[in-house]
Amino acid sequence: MNPSPHPIDLVIFDCDGVLVDSEGITGRVFADMLRELGADVDDHDLSGRCVGRSTADSLTIAADLLGRPLPPGFDSRYGERSRAALAQQVTLVAGVGSMLDAIDLPCAIASNGLRVKMAITLQVTGLLPRFDGRWFGIDDVEHGKPAPDIYLLAAKTFGARPEHCVVVEDSPTGIAAGRAAGMTVLGYAGGLSLERLVEAGADYVFDDMAHLPALLDALRRIAPVASAG
Mind listing the UniProt keywords for this protein, alphabetically (predicted)? Predict the structure, then answer.
């Protein structure tokens, strides 16, 4: 017997790499600053290590690569330089504008980024009015991803049942958070391969934002959004 149609109460998007094309920009700033300290780092390798992680976690990774503690004030200087670069360079991920126009479901954003950075990327890309009051950063919760806190906060804020929420993520860290929250997780292969997202636990994967509205419609019509356990 086919499962009954199941509603989707809320679609929750990660921000960096899913809605805004920011990770390459901040990654270059991060790598440049580490090279200035004498570290031999590759932009692509560093990005792969840090994708989906909080700034605090990325700073720990950077210190390990450098082989010594980061100098005092490194984190604040990185924040200033990365925000300045984002204000000048950030754009929407390809196809996001049309995709959002085609979705007739409640949407929110939940990111491991700080709200001060998110305010810049959402403003510059024109998403801030669309998601007014519907975006959350790591400073809104006690534990960032891979803990489920931020996704559960979004669901609670809008009265959505976690098992009827869909998360759109592009990193293993975010996928783990969505699964821990008991939500269906769609993996967007913007930077990582489809295979890696499947290995990380994504329930479904896609590589073109134009496909997301149809995927959500299919989930809503023909299958339960998530199952217990």
Answer: Magnesium, Metal-binding
Instruction: List 10's β-bridge partners, or say none.
Output: 165
Comparing C-alpha atoms, which of 77, 87, 103, 129 is closest to residue 13?
103
Is 10-21+91-222 assigned to CATH 3.20.20.30?
Answer: no
Of residues 149, 209, 146, the one with CA closest to residue 17: 209
What would the pLDDT profile of 89-132 be if each residue is shown by its tens digit?
999 999 999 999 999 999 999 999 999 999 999 999 999 999 99
**Within 13 Å and on the Cβ side, how many CA atoms surround 221?**
6
Assigned architecture for domain 23-89: Orthogonal Bundle (1.10)
pTM here is 0.85
Map out the domains of the chain as residue ranges: 10-21+91-222, 23-89
CA atoms of 124 and 39, how far apart (whole Å): 32
Find the farthest-apart pair of alpha carbons in the chain and give their distance in angstroms, rounded.
62
Alpha-carbon dihedral 36, 38, 44, 50, rounded to 10 degrees:
-90
* Overall residue count recorded for the chain in this entry: 229
